[in-house]
Sequence to fold (286 residues):
Amino acid sequence: MIPIFDTHAHLDLEPFSPDRGAVIRRIESGTLPIIPDGLISQQPIEMTGVLLPGIDAVSSCRCAELAKQSPIFHAAAAIHPNYVVNATDDDWKTITALAHSDAVSAIGETGLDQYWDYTPLEQQIDALRQHIDLAVQTSKPIQIHCRDAWNEMLPILRQAVKEKGLTGIIHAFSGEPEQAAECVELGFYLSFAGSVTYRNTKFSPLWESAKIVPADRLLIETDSPYMTPHPFRGKLKRNEPTMAVMVALRLAELRETTLESIAKTTTQNARQLLGISKNTFSQIQI
Ligand SMILES: [Zn+2]
Fold:
């Protein structure tokens, strides 16, 4: 069995509405939505976990509900930087209540996004600091989204780690090796997504980042329904959690190790960070 823990999947979102049940059954059976041609060995996949991050109050509640459907589902609650502009006081109360409840295992996704221009940066930074405080108060890991905002992000994280003991995941890591090294030094886990599988050389700094992250800080994710990995980008209508095996395969290639090794390590790391006891998965031998 190849154990696969997808640390970022938006199963609550609309693209999954028509056939969410079918997607969940594929997660439970470790079935890919498309069979890769000779890329994956005959070893079956066993999904060991899927972390479902919220993007606003409604989405976070849906993730918490979904997490009740399977012992391998875990929810996170937050308001995504792009949607902070729409958040009401009641939305923040919902996020705070969820964060303090057993319904969620992490605070996310939060962060900074300067690619899209939905929420003014100052407002994004304010919201990020509120999420950091929630993560620290609840002793739960934070899940960080950082798009075109490393210069603003790193000082905030540095301060929060130093003064408050923040820990967590940099989701869909997109940075260069220098930024990867800094995130590692701050104690974060780096989660790689479909982008690391893309063959365009503009992604080569990201390939280099994937090589230098210590094994005990490595995670994989799909960011479903987005970021479908190579070679299925443009061929699948959307990405889904079992496809995280393609990211593991690419990390194995870049790091000159085996798929099994990446799969086991990333599952162990995700469990460790989220405080998931192995006993919950006693049926899985890894
Ligand atoms: Zn996301």
